[in-house]
Amino acid sequence: RDDSLFRVDSTSALRNWKPVKKSAISSKVEYQSTDSISLDLARQKVYLYRDAEIKYEKIIQKAAYIEIDFNSSILSAKPLQDSTGKEFGKPEFTEGDQSFRSEKMEYNFKTRKGLIKNVITQEGEGYLHGEVVKKMDNDVSNMLHGGYTTCNLDHPHFSIQFTKAKVIPENKIV
User: Fold this and answer.
1) Are 116 and 100 spatial neighbours (Cβ–Cβ below 8 Å)?
2) ∠ at Cα 102 (136, 98), nearest 5°?
3) What backbone phi and psi angles, to 5 degrees, belong to 167?
4) Could you tell me the pTM of the whole model?
């Protein structure tokens, strides 16, 4: 019997060995959507359409459209438009006791930082509105062009306006 087909040349196997890239995502990622889920294995991306929801550790992301890029560790979320052009499914991001509603958001699982456009979040007994928000890894947020109000509407009747602000959760707004 010739078993040369079953022999392995260990030196050539080691020469061609490439280290496996360690994924930035260390925990289980659960995702679902009511329309469709598309996987692009070549680009390592997942696309979720309509009532999309992602759960990762303490993070819950909901939106009409969510895209996850496992190469860059970036999660992107945005609303979609119906046949009349009206937007639906604006992104809602929750991490622990912090939650945001926004027009568009990107979040990096690896650095735990995010960029959020046109955000509304509850802070204490009031609401913070911001045009651009950078969520830092230590839960501190930097906001540009916004306001603080006790009015719970998306377009409040009154607010204290600011150009720039730093929000330290459950502590202060500077």
Assistant:
1) yes
2) 50
3) -110, 120
4) 0.76
